[in-house]
Amino acid sequence: MKLKPLSDRVIVKLVEAEETTKGGIILTGAAKEKPEIAEVLAVGPGGMVDGKEVVMTVKVGDKVITSKYSGTQVKIDGEELTIVRQNDILAVVE
CA 88, 83, 29: angle at the middle one, nearest 5? Predict the structure, then answer.
């Protein structure tokens, strides 16, 4: 199944958290922080949203930081994805 975002929506996949700390300590699953960096998989066309023109500034392949509790989580073909609005994206990681 393939998802195509509408309007100002962006489909992202969270990037796995690091397994070890900078000091070399291996973290268990419970000790890992929720990843905040996601990769953009698909971008909607933008257009008129709530009476305002929205120009999409992110593109497929960008690494982004999203609001922690934003978006809608979906599971497609066993893969967990999140659908967020572009304004829930806080920054692009370069």
Answer: 90
